[in-house]
Description:
Blueprint: E1 4-9, E2 18-23, E3 28-29, E4 43-44, E5 47-48, E6 60-67, E7 75-77, E8 86-88, E9 90-91, E10 94-95, E11 110-113, E12 138-141, H1 144-147, E13 155-167, E14 174-182
Parallel strand pairs: 12-14
Antiparallel strand pairs: 1-2, 2-3, 4-5, 6-11, 6-13, 7-8, 9-10, 11-12, 13-14
Amino acid sequence: MALYCTEERGQPHSPDYRLFFKNVAGHYISPLHDIPLKVDSDEENGIPTKKAPNDEYENVFNMVVEVPRWTNAKTEIALKEPLTPIKQDVKDGKLHYVANIFPHKGYIWNYGAFPQTWEDPHRKDRSTDCCGDNDPIRYQRENRKTSLLLMENSRTRLLLLKSLNLLMNVGKPCLWTSVMAGL
Length: 183
């Protein structure tokens, strides 16, 4: 039994497309606000959780897949909409897609956000001297075996391996991203 499911509304690759999340009871939830950040118990809604290799839970996190591996549509959590569904990003009035880089098609990893996180654009990080980008903390997931199972936008558990701070453009906010391993 899945803890969360999704419901599509509108046509994919259109400005009105939305992907909403529901909990096990069938109630609509926000993937950003209602899914816990950390996996911190032996069971979650009666379902045993997977443990980190060292048999501890301290570094095991939930994630929300915004852009599934091998897809081109740049989708993201709609922060300003009720229930924060996933929608396709619009850039310069057009739907946003990423280019293929031969021999790959689209994103070569699952990309998304950690639930219940946010980067404050008014607070400078001491190590980078940059402010946040007003978005959730991002991740990329490079585990091929489990990435193939995540072709739909979804939620899964990850083990934190390392995190990086990326400077997108000079004078622009920083982007924290994490490299994760699937459990």
